[in-house]
Amino acid sequence: MILDAEIKAQLAQYLQMMEGEVLLKVSAGSDKISQDMLALVDELATMSSNIKVENTQLERTPSFSVNRSSEDTGVTFAGIPLGHEFTSLVLALLQVSGRAPKVDQKVIDQVKSIKGEHHFDSYISLTCQNCPDVVQALNLMSIINPNITHTMIDGAAFKEEVESKNIMAVPTVFLNGESFGSGRMAIEEILAKMGNAPDASEFADKDPYDVLVVGGGPAGASAAIYAARKGIRTGIVAERFGGQILDTASIENFISVKHTEGPKLAASLEEHVKEYNVDVMNLQRAKRLEKKDFIEIELENGAVLKSKTVILSTGARWRNVGVPGENEFKNKGVAYCPHCDGPLFAGKHVAVIGGGNSGIEAAIDLAGIVKHVTVLEFNPELKADSVLQDRLNSLPNVTVLKNVQTTEITGTDKVNGISYVERDTGAAQHIELAGVFVQIGLVPNTDWLAETVERNRIGEIIVDNHGSTNIPGVFAAGDCTNNPYKQIIISMGSGANAALGSFDYLIRN
């Protein structure tokens, strides 16, 4: 048995939702992965009379495709879609059977309008929490449009193919054999990369808002919900809904929820926001704020949105080391997500830059996958919690270098080493390795505000206890502010606080 009893019970409920027959075409060999894949397919077939199985020869072995009985949909899984990809398999079965996807009709129409042949390959890791968004989006596009096909490829099952293409980060997507993109991409983002992005004309006739929220993370979602519940005209502009929590694998300190995953929480946030009358403008990036009769927010596509009040909740991003080689080898050995990219470095030597909680957690995770981990910390002592340090020190394949400064990440077509200086002696050192994971904290996403809103020396927006900035009618919340603690639950609270502050400002002005 591939599926345990609990998963099978949940799966049985989903399979009852199938609306038609599905044919799984299976290409298997004698290897262990093939045999496990066959066992999974056979289990699926025994659980639903709507699932049929047929042996065939596909482009890759082991793999299987998910089809209607009368036509091939172009949806293929190369490897075994378990782990984070199990949901992708379930959705493929339901959607191929005829179950309508939970996607805006506008998006469906965009996918249907795509002309020409488009063959996507996505390289993923089963431990990657970012990969399912890409896999599910490309699967759906294949199901909707007969000109599109998609194959999900598990990098662990097809190591030689991954290495031959120099893939060192997941998800990585190829279109018609050429590199298309890497990292998390929602279906709207994929369509935008294919030339289907909304332009400024789509925003031309929008009336001014009472509250316009800029940013779709926990703070922005909370602010939008609190504002909408007041019955005032609310809009939210988000570069990607969910923000930084989309890159968070495990969340265990969100009070009342013992454990969840970032993408799951992000989906819940978006679903909750859409329960209210909120104008959600996704995949949009703000580039200018100016106070006139209304507060104006100009987007990068040239559109200008107007509002009586604005709540800035643009969050933060991973801080770069800022050394030669970091940008050049990003996704070629330089990585920021150990959960996503760690499996690609199995049996290899890697480094983690950063001795805080994030860095030490990354080192602990990687130590179970790679041959050896070297931790580089700038300060004389690690900053991580003592319980994490104790766990790290118990691991036999970890070296900790303290009081060192990274000077360069070296390589040719990919990373081959890291150089550093011992700060007490000035001695230069070099380590040969295959990957570098950067974990040195966050930078607020406030560069676009220039001199319009008062910020502190590290770019955080300065707010009072109502969330107000120095500009009347402009509020801020979450990780982009000078709030000292960057936590999901605190961001949500500050978003609610800013929304209540903006409502109070509206009724008084």
Give the helix/strand layout.
Layout: H1 5-15, E1 22-27, H2 32-47, E2 51-55, E3 63-68, E4 71-78, H3 86-96, H4 105-112, E5 118-124, H5 131-144, E6 148-154, H6 159-164, E7 172-175, E8 178-182, H7 187-193, E9 209-214, H8 218-228, E10 234-238, H9 262-273, E11 278-282, E12 286-291, E13 295-299, E14 304-312, E15 316-318, E16 334-335, H10 338-341, E17 349-353, H11 357-367, E18 372-377, H12 386-393, E19 398-402, E20 404-411, E21 415-422, E22 428-432, E23 435-438, E24 442-444, E25 474-476, H13 488-508
Parallel strand pairs: 1-2, 4-6, 5-6, 9-10, 9-14, 10-11, 14-25, 16-23, 17-18, 17-23, 18-19
Antiparallel strand pairs: 1-3, 3-4, 5-7, 7-8, 12-13, 13-14, 15-24, 20-21, 21-22
Helix pairs in contact: 3-5, 8-9, 8-13, 11-12
Can you give me a brief rundown of this structure?
InterPro entries: AhpF_NTD_C, AhpF_NTD_N, Alkyl_hydroperoxide_Rdtase_suF, FAD/NAD-bd_sf, FAD/NAD-binding_dom, Ferredoxin-NADP_redctase_2, Pyr_nucl-diS_OxRdtase_2_AS, Thioredoxin-like_fold. NAD(+) binds at residues 349-363. This protein has 509 residues and is α/β, with parallel strands linked by helices.
Written overview of the protein:
Helices cover 28% and strands 27% of the residues. The chain is built from 13 helices and 25 strands. Strands 2-1-3-4-6-5-7-8 form an eight-stranded mixed sheet, covered by helices on one side. Strands 9, 10, 11, 12, 13, 14 and 25 form a seven-stranded mixed sheet that branches. It has a five-stranded parallel sheet with strand order 16-23-17-18-19, with helices on one face. With 509 residues, the chain is of the alpha/beta class. The radius of gyration is 24 Å and the shape is globular. It folds into three domains: 5-193, Glutaredoxin (3-Layer(aba) Sandwich); 209-283 and 444-508, FAD/NAD(P)-binding domain, CATH 3.50.50; 334-438, FAD/NAD(P)-binding domain (3-Layer(bba) Sandwich), CATH 3.50.50.60. Helix 8 (218-228) runs parallel beside helix 9 (262-273), helix 8 runs parallel beside helix 13 and helix 11 runs parallel beside helix 12. NAD(+) binds at residues 349-363. Residues 209-491 form the FAD/NAD(P)-binding domain. FAD binds at residues 210-225, 469-479. Keywords: Disulfide bond, FAD, Flavoprotein, NAD, NADP, Oxidoreductase, Redox-active center, Ubiquinone. It comes from Peribacillus loiseleuriae.
